[in-house]
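Severity: low
Component: inverse-folding endpoint
Summary: output formatting inconsistent between runs
Steps to reproduce: submit the following structure tokens with default settings.
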């Protein structure tokens, strides 16, 4: 970052490796150059408590469908004192940031999904963590030539298992597992039409092979 940096946008939890980024450290560096911090909490809020005051972020973006709410709804936290301008203009001027009629059913559905997610978060996370650990132990204990694409310890959330199987094409493995009633993905939904390896996995040292 330099003094020319005005905004730092960063994801809280990687959707590829589930690593939890050190947001407080990012905020500290951003403050030194006078930059604001926008945190993408879509992947973290469903799986862990997130306190914007403790993290010190200026903005936090959330997505409804990540907590099983309606698609097309979301939320934006704006810290008091932070000023932003609308980028979409329209005939209605009663709204501060969105010049249109709100999607009330989606907003209500988002609220209810958020309420249930918060209420059941502890039980859900513990349950998913047990399933994840059981799956990982089974893979590592019975399959050779496997690379685990995630950090060890507590700097991760529990909802993802990302492994690389060496010496086999991802598509072939996906088809074979589906024939056996096991359904997996060889990439994220965001890059389903991209044949190249994940840029995140390449960045942590994995190769095209």
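Observed output (run 2 of 3):
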């Amino acid at each position: 970052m330099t003094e020319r940096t005005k905004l730092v946008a960063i994801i809280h939890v990687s959707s590829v490796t589930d690593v939890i980024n050190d947001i407080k450290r990012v905020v500290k560096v951003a403050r030194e150059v006078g930059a604001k911090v926008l945190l993408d909490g879509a992947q973290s809020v469903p799986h862990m408590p997130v306190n914007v005051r403790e993290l010190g972020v200026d903005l936090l973006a959330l997505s409804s469908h990540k907590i099983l709410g309606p698609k097309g709804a979301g939320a934006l936290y704006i810290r008091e004192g932070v000023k932003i301008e609308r980028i979409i203009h329209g005939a209605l001027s009663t709204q501060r940031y969105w010049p249109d009629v709100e999607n009330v059913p989606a907003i209500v559905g988002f609220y209810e999904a958020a309420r249930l997610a918060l209420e059941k978060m502890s039980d859900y996370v513990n349950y998913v963590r047990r399933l994840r650990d059981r799956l990982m132990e089974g893979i590592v204990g019975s399959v050779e030539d496997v690379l685990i694409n995630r950090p060890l310890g507590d700097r991760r959330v529990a909802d993802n298992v990302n492994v690389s199987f060496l010496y086999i094409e991802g598509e072939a493995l996906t088809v074979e597992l589906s024939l056996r009633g096991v359904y997996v993905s060889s990439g994220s939904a965001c890059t389903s039409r991209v044949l190249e390896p994940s840029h995140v996995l390449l960045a942590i040292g994995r190769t095209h092979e």
